[in-house]
Recover the amino acids of this structure.
């Protein structure tokens, strides 16, 4: 059954997306073994439930190939015309260094061929080192490829507000993908207002903290490293430590559980709903371990309830006790630099 209309968002004039995007870092190998045929079969289940938008990257293991296989099988079952129902947003994450037209062409050519498309729906660009100004050359080349019809829309990931401003002055970008969750609300400080003023959307990741923001961890002792068996759980456990630690996180989970009970939803649903309601947010990316674990029906419930001002105030009372991650880490994406 398709989720109701609140699940859709007019991302660009030509792209309507699901507000929960399926994240494919989880197929990279860093989150357990993924069986390719099973993974592609499961992609149909996501699509048929209305979760038609995928977030991937050139370096997420087989993610771009899985999209290619999914598209081929989808066309065989439903016809080529219906391929336009699928939105696949990839990334290009080059190593720093000189960015020639040839290098950029080759990288985008590989993604086009792996994904089996003539034109990328969205190309999200990441750059590791701001001191290396070659990223501006890379973006100029990408803009030319866009002009030639190889890329429908250009976007960024993990750029801070200052560089987003610098880039947006020269090249139109439609979105910036950043970490955004109840514990990491750095995008609210500078990023969101800039995005609103410049009609740029935010795509949020890390919203479920790799699964830590769920009933599974409510009341549980602080997990030790070996128990955190995905790259995602390890990444966000570090973030919880920087934010305020496990005891405060348990207070947050307890409050979220009360709110979830009131609305007959889950802790994860409350965490995603809160971020979807923030200014400039187009969608939340939720990682999917395709063929291993699946939360399709559970996540569709995000679209069937609303948080009231009392809920938000209760949540923010707990969040006020945490450290300011803008002070600890810096603006969006600074954790990568
Ligand atoms: N641009 C970047 O630098 C960047 C960085 C990180 C991630 N991302 C993107 O964001 C995506 C999300 O990755 P993430 O690392 O941030 O992970 P996440 O979405 O915070 O967590 C994903 C995990 O949450 C659990 N989960 C999902 N729905 C749930 C529900 N309803 N209830 C309870 N648990 C639920 C699942 O765990 P189980 O599988 O164990 O059930 C799933 O594997 C990635 O795939 C990628 O596309 C981008």
């Amino acid at each position: 059954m398709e989720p109701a209309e609140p699940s859709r968002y007019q991302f660009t004039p030509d792209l309507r997306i699901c507000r929960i995007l399926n994240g494919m870092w989880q197929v990279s190998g860093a989150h357990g073994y993924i069986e390719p045929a099973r993974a592609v079969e499961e992609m149909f289940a996501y699509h048929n439930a209305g979760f038609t938008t995928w977030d991937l990257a050139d370096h997420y293991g087989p993610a771009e190939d899985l999209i290619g296989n999914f598209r081929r099988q989808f066309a065989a079952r439903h016809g080529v015309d219906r391929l336009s129902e699928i939105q696949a947003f990839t990334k290009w994450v080059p190593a720093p260094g000189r960015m020639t037209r040839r290098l950029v062409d080759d990288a985008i050519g590989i993604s086009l061929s792996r994904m089996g498309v003539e034109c990328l729906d969205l190309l999200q660009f990441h750059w590791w080192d701001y001191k290396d100004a070659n990223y501006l050359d890379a973006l100029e080349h990408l803009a030319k490829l866009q002009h030639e019809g190889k890329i429908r829309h250009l976007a960024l990931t993990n750029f801070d507000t200052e560089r987003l401003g610098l880039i947006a002055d020269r090249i139109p970008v439609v979105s910036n993908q950043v970490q955004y969750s109840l514990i990491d609300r750095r995008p609210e400080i500078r990023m969101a207002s800039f995005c609103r003023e410049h009609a740029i959307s935010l795509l949020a990741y890390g919203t479920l903290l790799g699964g830590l923001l769920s009933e599974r961890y409510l009341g549980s002792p602080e997990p030790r490293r070996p128990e955190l068996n995905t790259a995602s759980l390890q990444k966000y456990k570090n973030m919880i430590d920087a934010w305020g630690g496990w005891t405060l996180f348990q207070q947050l989970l307890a409050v979220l559980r009360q709110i979830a009970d009131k609305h007959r939803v889950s802790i994860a649903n409350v965490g995603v709903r809160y971020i979807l309601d923030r200014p400039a947010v187009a969608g939340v990316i939720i990682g999917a371990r395709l063929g291993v674990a699946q939360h399709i029906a559970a996540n569709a419930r995000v679209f069937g309830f609303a948080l009231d001002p009392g809920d938000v105030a209760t949540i923010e009372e707990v969040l006020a006790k945490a450290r300011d991650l803008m002070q600890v880490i810096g603006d969006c994406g600074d954790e990568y630099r």
Notes: The mean pLDDT is 97. Residues 23-26, 55, 157-158, 177, 205-211, 214, 232, 266, 268, 285-287, 289, 293, 295, 298-299 surround NAP (CB under 6 Å).
